[in-house]
Amino acid sequence: MERKKKEVIRLERESVIPVLKPKLIMTLANLIEHGTDRAEFLKLCKRIEYTIRAWYFLQFEDMMQLYSLFDPVSGAKKLEQQNLSPTEIHVLEQNFLTFLFQVMDKSNFKITSEEEIDVALSGQYLLNIPIKVDESKLDKELLKTYFADHPRENLPDFSDKYIIFRRGIGIDKTTDYFVMEKVDMLIGRFWGFLLRVTRLDKFFDKSRGQHKKDLKKKDDLNSEEDQDDLFVERIRLEKMDISFKNLLRKTTIQEPTFDRIIVVYREATPKSKTDRGIYIKHFKNIPMADLEIVLPEKKNPGLTPKDWVTFLVSAVVGLVAVLGSVKMPKIDLWVIFAVLSTVVGYCAKTYFTFQQNMAAYQNLITQSMYDKQLDSGKGTLLHLCDDVIQQEVKEIIISFFILMEQGNATRQDLDLRCEGLIKEEFGESCNFDVDDAVGKLEKLGIVARDSLGRYFCVALKRANEIIGTTTEELVLKANQGVMTNP
């Protein structure tokens, strides 16, 4: 089945290192020639991780304590026990959001921007029905207050009600016959042909022209090239040449996915209630075009006002055309048949398409609840805390390894070398966050700058001496002693 011009989506490359920490450490260790140096390097990696965990422990503990007051399950009772004033509660919830957004940034989650939302929803994948959020069921003060105190650029229009974080890009492919979808497209094309034959297309030119204009804007957005950005292809039925010959053939469609999605919101509650629960939901592998399935408080979908207007316009225009043909001296049955076929066919197309899309919508919602939702609430926060530690440890280890093996480097050179190492050894690409890495290395005291401003590292053995024996190592030794001497 032939496809028309490729549809490519441009996305900003992320800083997340898509390599598991154990694999990263062992791969780098195997690149070290001498066994003693390799052992020192493995010891250093453990001490770096233990130290980073200790640094973040108090911050994460404070965040978890704050969230216990706003947990939708048990937070209301704890708030009641604290006997706090509304002002104090307001301060605490804003403090929690500050912690949460900091952890999101450290975990390399980004707020989905207005442009990314527009590009994602400019196409269709498995969800082909308009989904709307019931905004009356969502609180509009929590996030609005936060962004008033912590302004950010390019926030989506709904940022006062809920916020969507995203991280990682993947690809989802679906192979199926898509018979109903293909039939729907063929009916749509036949409908357009009948409109042109009966000259009824002038009633719909305006809406179609506006649609094309909007798509052109999105195409312009996608066509901008940036060598640091990530390009992923979207393969849709709408861009394929569909005919009765390939109606019963299997077809593969493809859609870029957001590898991880986190949605934060609060439900609207009467002022008399003390429930101030903050919902945090974590999803995986969400197709961009089906992003609506993760939205909170979705309305039950139905026929859109446009569908109803089209129904009425089609019926009125068809009735007028039929009456006009009947009043003519010579009745043209073919014209009457064409008009009636057009009206009935389009109405049937709209109805059956809606029923099919409703079934697909219910299936996707069920799938998002059981297959694609990873966690929520406290579980998501614990996952984020571990993500922060894992990413920072990997950044520090890679930066130290490059300085150890390749010598002194400027900040820019170190950044490029780290990205090159990840690409060469693991076949992965990322926008390495060198500033955060060298900042932590300097704080650890194992990296400094020379007179030219270039970064250099101390020897492996000296690095281990500077960090020193960690509490975790002492506990492990104590446990080993207990096991060997029962």
Name the average pLDDT. Answer: 83
State the strand order across the main sheet: 2-3-5-6-7
What low-confidence regions span 5 or more consecutive residues with pLDDT below 50?
A: 206-225
Order of helices and strands: EHHHHEHHEHHEEEHHEHHHEEHH
Helix content bin: 55-70%
Count of separate DSSP helical elements = 15
Q: What spatial form do the alpha-carbon principal axes imply?
A: globular
| Gap between N and C termini | 71 Å
Strand content: 5-15%
User: What is the SS-derived class?
Assistant: alpha+beta
Q: How many E-type strands?
A: 9
Could you describe the 3D structure shown?
Strands 2-3-5-6-7 form a five-stranded antiparallel beta sheet. It is an alpha+beta fold and 486 residues long. The protein has helices at residues 21-30, 35-70, 75-82, 86-106, 114-120, 142-149, 179-197, 205-223, 305-327, 333-372, 378-406, 411-426, 434-444, 460-467, 471-484; strands spanning 7-12, 110-111, 162-176, 229-234, 251-265, 279-287, 373-376, 447-449, 455-457. The longest helix has 40 residues, at 333-372. Helix content is 55%, strand content 13%.
Keywords:
486 residues; alpha+beta; two-stranded antiparallel ribbon; 55% helix; 13% strand
In short:
This protein is of the alpha+beta class and 486 residues long. The chain contains 15 helices and nine strands.
